[in-house]
Amino acid sequence: MYQADIAIVGAGMVGLALARSLKEADLSVILIDTTPIAKPLSEQPELRVSAINAANKQVLEQLGVWQHLDQQRLSAYTQMQVWDQDSFGRIQFSSEEMGTSELGHIIENQSLVNALHHQVSQQPNVQMLPSTHIAKVLTGQAETMLMLDTDEVVSCRLLVGADGANSAIRKYANFPLTFKDYGHTAIVATIKTAAPHGKVARQVFTPTGPLALLPLSDPNLCSIVWSQNSQQADELLALSNSDFAKALQVAIEGDVGEIAVESARMHFPLTMRYARQWLSDGLVIIGDAAHTIHPLAGQGANLGLQDAFALADSLQKLAAEQAAFHQARQLRAFERARKSEAVKMIAAMESFKQLFGGSHPLKKLIRGVGMCTADAIPAIKQRFITQAMGW
């Protein structure tokens, strides 16, 4: 039998970030995942990337994780350009305006997982169980028992579900879920551009959905996230690579020159999810298990990491006070604070999607005037970029 104070189910970046943040806590941790955790990076850039903001970078540095990222695969961006394809609206942000060396970093998800794994694997208070499935969960007042498919048992006081959007732990807990189909499919791929990206993150809003070009470490490679209504996405996915590249060039208005598709194209439907309950005695959920949002602002990973850091902070304080950290009443403040942040982000993404979707003349006018006004007023621009950086 395995015994620990905390069992974390899900060893993606959020679950690993929680385990790493508990490195100095007087708490034992077991980390369980259905797949191998650390994996070698492919020669070509991984398809799944995240824009990690400055606030989370700072925490990852403090945790000794940032230093173990593959620096050759790390890409800082110093500018953001956002415009509306269907109006005159455009806004640009730069690190120079903020007095910083960069606005954020584009990181391959597996690269961050590998760096986190490297550090967590050296923690004496953490035991990892990769490639392990949970057959049954049994809860009691004092402890929770996890029956593994290996016929072994994990006993813990607090079970943390960090197991993604289709969380088995959330489903087991029967937490009520609000969800909405965005009606969008996200297409992700790696592309090569004739013109160097110049460390600029670009996003154009089209009538059928936003397209983001995220600069990678190679000056001519970008990761794209093209969120389109489902019918348009199906049509794009049916195109050959060369025709898909031409459609990209039209959407981005030739901003980076000729485009070539360098990878397979992956796609997935976009759904907003919000768990109306995150806690019960002996159980808590975080990250995508608790909320998923539209990727148009690139804040999903940042929101999940902040959940992990906030939960770790609460658990460490409760453990230091010898309080019953596994009881829901002790974690209510954490739940309220993080649910509030999730709701604000969900509402903001919905507002953006509604405002920038479609080509109604009034919407186009509002978008154009709003973006140009924001670009012309430093105080408004600074507020937007400060929030994007996580401060």
From TrEMBL:
GO MF assignments: 2-polyprenylphenol 6-hydroxylase activity; FAD binding
GO biological process: one example: ubiquinone biosynthetic process
Pathways involved: Cofactor biosynthesis; ubiquinone biosynthesis
SUPFAM superfamilies xref list: FAD/NAD(P)-binding domain
Superkingdom per UniProt: Bacteria
Residue span(s) of domain FAD-binding: 4-339
Record's keyword terms, sorted: FAD, Flavoprotein, Monooxygenase, Oxidoreductase
Entry's family note: Belongs to the UbiH/COQ6 family.
The name this protein goes by in its record: FAD-dependent 2-octaprenylphenol hydroxylase
